[in-house]
Amino acid sequence: MSFITANFAPIMFIGLICFLILGFPVAFSLGAAGMFFGLLGVWLDIFPTAILSVLPLRLIGIMANETLLAVPFFTLMGLILERSGMAEDLLETVGQVFGPLRGGVALAVVLVGAMLAATTGVVAASVISMGLISMPIMLRYGYSRSLASGVIAASGTLAQVIPPSLVLIVLSDQMGKSVGDMYKGAFIPGFMLMGLYILFIVALAVFKPKMVPALPPEARAFREPNGHSGYRSLALLALLSVIVGVVLGKNMEAVHTWWQGEVVSFVPTDERIVVAMCGGTFVAWLIAVINRVTHLGLLSKLAERVTFVLIPPLLLIFLVLGTIFLGVATPTEGGAMGAMGALIMATMRKRLTWSLLRQALDTTTKLASFVMFILVGATVFSMVFQAADGPVWVEHLLTKLPGGEVGFLIFVNVLIFFLAFFLDFFELSFIVVPVLAPIADKMGIDLIWFGVLLAVNMQTSFLHPPFGFALFYLRSVAPEKPYVDHVTGKTMAPVTTMQIYKGAIPFLLLQLTMVAVLIAFPGLVTGNLDKKVKIDMKAVGEQMMEQLNQNEGSDFNSLPEGLHPPGGAGAGAPASAPGAAAPAAVPSDTGQGPVGEEIDPMKAIQDSLGKK
């Protein structure tokens, strides 16, 4: 028994692994391990029985957690948008824009994946939608099957990092940080990862063009009556939008100064990007509306189609992320507005039905319940683990790693990478992060940067062969048997599981590259955060003492002992009589020093409060 008592924390951790290996659901494994070792710890007198009485309060605190309320809101928003056909319209339109280029359809998948990530935040919805729509098109026109599979699965996982990501909400809650700050920190890294995907496709188009052919002329749907493609009109409209956005972004300080009525000298980068993007898209939308109403022929069919298809999701992005970044709404309020915006968009498109709404609500309820059960189980386990000084054991284990902070980060990322083979991001967030975050905080690591770093690493859990969830989602919609293409009439070969695994590996390496980039350049995350306001507590104490000294003739008997100003402590004694010299001595028993030593105002305040 002495061995169990001395090694209770590591035995408890091994016990959890045994529960998981036996095949029990993660939520029930966590709860069962926590209760079992909790009762065992009470029996062995490792901690008192009262520790178990805290459990109901912890569970009530989970139910009252307003931050986690954003999870069902964002899930509902994504499911409604996915089922209302927004993904189909985006893929069809963006595919027509980039189709004439080598790798154009793959580029369209990446761009639409990023847009779906910024509007839905649900990996399953993105992968399934793009698999159903773009996979047949890419196979029809000769794309490599492995590349087509990899780009669809990887683009869907962008919903893990690009706000409003569900994993960022969970990580911010577990780390005790603001969801808005976590979103701001992940904004640029998320789109940088999208840029790595695009560079990889462009490199394939240059060096292996047969893997990514362009769409043939007969596959291009939007043509002008004179036979032109309409790209010139689209390019001019895009150029005008970019100019407006750049000008607005560079003058954000002036705009804020005019709006707030006071000088603003700093505007965060993420806020510049969101507002500039919305300003540019609004100008494009306004021109398209004028063109449609007046029939002036200012825009081509392609330009008008692109504008009216892209503007609604971009508007929803501003509604959700813009209000959060600008501080107008909390993430929970932003999620609620996003869900309402998705309902309005689906209604305007005449695609909102009772069946669609019921399916979306049913799936949202299942996911929210799944998250809640895992959180309850993780709370039971972590409460007992902390009572047994488990965090201290983990801290001693990790702080002894060679390399200091860098060694700790490398070990943690390798650990998360391998655990992601078997656990999804919810489980990793609730089991591993509460143990690692306090250690990172003690080592001086910024927790927002640490959270974004872990989110990018957890993204690999969706692409790990053979357990990646994105690969399972794609496998469920990719053709398993030969089929006849309804456009060409040709018999198409199926997509094998090994081809899906092979296609995921290059994008998995790109994700790991992004992890290394974030470790090397933390400013990519922390540079987007609001500047911290430092408070000089000593100056505050000195200011308090100055204000007390200015109250001549006040009754200082009501002050705490040790805060009587020099020169008198009796009833009605002035702080310093005019013309009288203040005594140098501070005769008191507060421990601030011998007679004749100058008083430290902050120490006097702390000593007096300590006595109280």
Automatic annotation (TrEMBL):
It holds the Pfam family DctM. Keywords: Cell inner membrane, Cell membrane, Membrane, Transmembrane, Transmembrane helix, Transport. This is TRAP transporter large permease subunit. Residues 552-612 are annotated as: Disordered. It is a multi-pass membrane protein. Part of the tripartite ATP-independent periplasmic (TRAP) transport system. The chain crosses the membrane at residues 7-28, 34-55, 67-85, 105-135, 147-171, 186-207, 230-249, 273-294, 306-328, 334-349, 370-388, 408-436, 448-474, 504-525. Residues 13-250, 301-524 form the TRAP C4-dicarboxylate transport system permease DctM subunit domain. InterPro entries: DctM (IPR010656), TRAP_DctM (IPR004681). It is found in: Cell inner membrane. Residues 572-585 have a biased composition (Low complexity). Its main location: membrane. The keyword Zinc does not apply.
